Amino acid sequence: MAALSAWFWNERFWLPHNVTWADLANPPPGKEYPKPGHLLAALPLALGIFVVRILFERFIASACARRLHIQPGGGRRAQPNVLLEKVFTSITKNPDSRHLDGLSKQLDWEVRKVQRWFRHRRNQDKPSTHTKFCESMWRFSFYLGIFIYGLQFLWQSPWMWDTRHCWYGYPYQIMTPGLYHYYVTELAFYWSLMFSQFRDIKRKDFLIMFIHHLATVSLISFSYANNMARVGSLVLCVHDASDFLLEAAKMANYAKCQRLCDFLFILFSGVFYVTRLFIFPVWILNSTMFESWAIVGPYPSWWLFNVLLLLLQVLHIFWSYLISRIAYKAIMRGKVCNDVRSDVESSSEEERNATEGLRASKGENGTNGHCAPARARTQNHCSW
Asked: What are 85-98's pLDDT values in tens digits?
């Protein structure tokens, strides 16, 4: 284990030339440099966030949903039927024509009636609009709160106004309490998303979002470990800027406030484009690639960090394209349309139009939106 640890924490990978871990072990009196062990505090905090979320959704968000006439409970339930229930639980939830014909003959039902039963039975296990509203309200509250905190903290930080301060004196940069709290809270939130994803609304992109959350946790931890927290805080803030707007648009959609939903989605799209396609490359990538090269110089983890940020920018472009498709369809249809992650089935095109809406990231921070408008965040939410 000692050999593995020594290999993983190789100074020549993590730190600039002529800098060692021992150099960072003795900060000035009363000061602190980032240490990887500090990040362990995010795990109990993530558990605390998870508990707060459960209480928030159960009491605060649920009360708001009822005030908006979004009642708990699902839609129409399938009538009890022992044979169909056995087929549904042990054979298939989406019977093909052969199964449908056989069941139709056994029950003396029309094939259409059997299809309708299976549709109702599948929807019966899906979360209600009330559940989805509560989930979105929690995310909206956290994203808005952390964005306000991050913006307030960065407003007083010199690297907000001159990104070269991200590299002056690097890596001997003091970890201030405000920066530490910002970083660890963001990290804990994404750890909590990994915990809660197994009880959240199940979507088709479950595995993709799990990988996204894992990548976000890895990037935040990586940037903290080699003391790139200053530029990392800028990345987090840029990604947080649009996430709460997406969740607000989804809440408006669940509350059937279509005009407000459309307005918020357009606002979200505009903020997403500005922050991910302009501010991120012009402000942040320019600093991490060119200003840092001139002030600090490249080294192995510097290359890895910039490659990951460039890949993130490629994802921003891809998500922007998907958001643009949704916006175009919204204009053509007169309202924000559904995305491919919709988990509600309907018996007709009219029913689909009535239930479809904004269901998006990563950005995620991010960011984080996609045909899942931007739940890849955008989640994404992407966030990183």
From this structure: 898 888 888 999 99
